[in-house]
Amino acid sequence: MAMALYEPGLGYYTNALQKFGTMPTSGSDFVTAPGISPLFGQTLAAQVQEALQATGTDEVWEFGAGTGALALQLLQSLGDAVKRYTIIDLSGSLRARQAETLLKYAGKVRWLDTWPEAIEGVVVGNEVLDAMPVHLLQRTQGVWHERGVVSASENAESEGKGFAWQDRITDLRPPVEIEGAHDYLTEIHPQAEAFVASLAERLLAGRGGAAFFLDYGFPEAEYFHPQRHMGTVMCHQLHQADDNPLVAVGQKDITAHVNFTGVALAAQNAGLNVLGYTSQAWFLLNLGLAERMANASLAERSQAQRLVNEHEMGELFKVIGFSTSADVSAQGFARGDRSHRL
Questions:
Q1: Helices 298-308 and 38-55 sit at what angle, rounded to 10 degrees?
Q2: Which of 34, 97, 272, 310 measures 20 to 30 Å from 293, CA to CA?
Q3: pTM to 2 decimals?
Q4: Geometric angle at alpha carbon 340, from 332 and 131, rounded to 5°
């Protein structure tokens, strides 16, 4: 998964494919919330501004900034509250697109290839954790295997060229016992959890700050539910979804849902406080999205509705927040907080 997404020049996020857009006719594969409606970033800005004030900082950090649309919406909304906007992104082609989008704010925006020793400010990540490589675990007849990828010629059951799955017995396990004896495919997320732990280390090394991640996923009890026996790995190409990452490698996005319990524990174990955990709908409504929609045009309201509709992004997408101080609160979690479910 790491090679398919990030191999220099060949991986999905390092090649020149369009990726982000609202329609497949543009050559794009999917659209994210900032591309659906500018009200997304404008509303998120209210939370970022509250966190900047609470932490006494003036810098925003964004991981995986995509087209730069969210950065633009935040910079437009936050004004002088942000002195510097730092983007950390592995994609050179996307960085060029971001620079074009953010030309007006060239004096404030910088790009980094590697993490600094300390981070001060407010961190945002929209659909970042789901693109971090996962390990596949397959329970077959009661025995746990790690599922890996081989060339098709190495797999006796495959014909022709390309890639194939191959399982091998492993000591790796999901974080909870899976009820039942049926065959079961799932994922574990060591890279996402290590990412959050590294972020915590750097936030605590500075004057402090907060972080907010928005993504699709579940708490542990739902993620490893006995009925969820096919795993969550999905691919996206030309606005169509499929479950076979071995085809069109490097030409399509590969994602897995986020285990928010694992992310929260990694952050807590590294010294951060959990500000809250809720659905995207509750988070945006707590921050005044409904009031912004009331003042928008009919077309703008229709688009923004997708952000909160239960059958679209409102319920599937979740938001989790962290801070270096236990004294910080976050308006986005004022109602509908589900931290007790993590």
A1: 60
A2: 97
A3: 0.95
A4: 65
CA nearest to 40, candidates 126, 122, 156: 126
Confirm if 150 and 166 have CB atoms less than 8 A apart: yes
Rounded to the nearest 10°, the torsion over CA 292, 295, 301, 306 is 10
Q: Are 203 and 211 in contact (CB under 8 A)?
A: yes
- Contacts of 254 by beta carbon, 8 Å cutoff, 6+ apart: 1, 4, 5, 12, 131, 233, 234, 235, 245
Structure confidence by residue, pLDDT tens digits, 19-36? 777 667 677 777 899 999
One-letter amino acid at 85 equals Y
Q: Rounded to the nearest 10 degrees, what angle do helices 190-205 and 260-269 cross at?
A: 40
For residues 18 and 90, what is the distance between their CA atoms, to the nearest angstrom? 16
Interior/surface letters 307-324, b for 16+ CB within 10 angstroms, e for the rest: bbeeeebbebbbbbbbbb
Positive or negative, the CA dihedral 193, 197, 198, 203 is positive
**C-beta of residue 53 within 8 angstroms of C-beta of residue 328:** no
Q: What is the pLDDT of residues 120-164, one digit of tens each?
A: 999 999 999 999 999 999 999 999 999 999 998 766 565 556 999
- Name the burial class of residue 238, with classes exposed (0-12), middle (13-18) and buried (19+) by CB atoms within 10 angstroms of its CB: middle
Residue 287 identity (one-letter amino acid): L
